[in-house]
Amino acid sequence: MVDLNFIVASSTLPLATVMSLCLVLGIIIGLSVMSVFTTKLKWQHYRLQKQHQKAGDVDN
Description:
Elements: E1 2-5, E2 10-13, H1 15-55
Antiparallel strand pairs: 1-2
């Protein structure tokens, strides 16, 4: 059992539960950060593709 002391409350949970929560939280944060970067790169790719089309260089 692991004691978790927060600012406003405290709790006692099994170690496996705490580690599972940390794993899930890490996956969620990682996917969120990755989706932001992926969206930015897709938008950049779209803009560059439009610039190439305007220049007359139509290479897919």
